[in-house]
Amino acid sequence: MRLAHRELGSGSPVLLLHGWPTSSYLWRHVMPAIAERNRVIAVDLPGFGGSDKPAGAAYDFEFFESAIDAFLEQLGIEQVSIGVHDIGGPIGAHWALKRPSRVTSLALLNTLLYPELSDAALLFVQTLSNPEGRERLTSPEGLSWAMKFGVADESRLDAGVLAEVSSHFKTGEAREALADAGIGLQIAGFREIADWLPTVDVPVRMIYGEQDRILPDIADTAARVKKDIPHAEITALPGCGHFLQEEEPEEIGRMLADFFAARDERPT
């Protein structure tokens, strides 16, 4: 399976995982700040962006984790810091809980981690679980709507961003893969993540846009993360929505750059 990615910088590696329906492109303006002190790699997960989109794949935790394992092996990376967004969150968290010795720090951006899904998340799953809904939401119009719905200010999304997202899903097979990739994660895996979070002892940074209409319970998720991981540092951005990397990329890049670089300054 071929996986597309983008990479900048040198030093201790940082892996960035996107969510639905985006790709490594989402991190393009965040990466330069991180790359000043770290080697930062953003991958297109299977089913997304420029990566292969195998038809009929399970797109469950095990599928994504095997892809990440093979990807990191190809790059010669053993230990890594992780930054995650949207469904990249549970994918990255579940990968980490199975491989705790490989993760050096964890950054969470507008993601979902717990098995108690919001009504909005359940509606998303229901929509992509029926043929009419998945055809509508994965169409160019549906993807443009999703991206616009995911920001606090639509003017921050130019036509180029919308075109980039939809450009990877021109065929029916690609759109079917995208739909499957959005709903393949098992609830049992979320339960495992919820049980694991209170045991996390690596540094954790959470940054989230408060005006998230895609994950409207994001503040509750952040509060629960803080309860489960008291040492987690959490920042809320009041002027941002779900795709905060499109709205405040420089600020987010600066915060993540400081967080990931601090990993090398901490005592071992």
Structure description:
The protein is α/β, with parallel strands linked by helices. It has a single domain, classed as Alpha/Beta hydrolase fold, catalytic domain (Rossmann fold). 44% of the residues lie in helices and 15% in strands. The chain has a seven-stranded mixed β-sheet with strand order 1-3-2-4-5-6-7, sandwiched between helices. The longest helix has 15 residues. The model has no long low-confidence stretch (mean pLDDT 96).
Short description:
The protein has 268 residues and is α/β, with parallel strands linked by helices. It has helices at 31-35, 61-75, 88-98, 119-128, 131-137, 140-149, 159-167, 172-183, 187-196, 218-228, 244-247, 249-262, and strands at residues 5-8, 13-17, 39-43, 80-86, 103-111, 204-209, 233-237. The model has no long low-confidence stretch (mean pLDDT 96).
Order of helices and strands: EEHEHEHEHHHHHHEHEHH
Number of helices: 12
CATH homologous superfamily title: Alpha/Beta hydrolase fold, catalytic domain
Query: What distance lies between the first and last C-alpha atoms, to the nearest angstrom?
Result: 36 Å
CATH fold node name: Rossmann fold
Could you give a short account of the major beta sheet?
7 strands, mixed
Shape-level CATH architecture = 3-Layer(aba) Sandwich
Structural class: alpha/beta
Question: Tally of extended strands?
Answer: 7
Strand order of the largest sheet: 1-3-2-4-5-6-7
Tell me the helix content: 40-55%
Mean pLDDT: 96
Uncertain segments are none
Number of domains: 1
What is the rounded Rg?
17 Å
Highest CATH level, the class: Alpha Beta
Shape: globular
The percent range for strand residues is: 15-25%
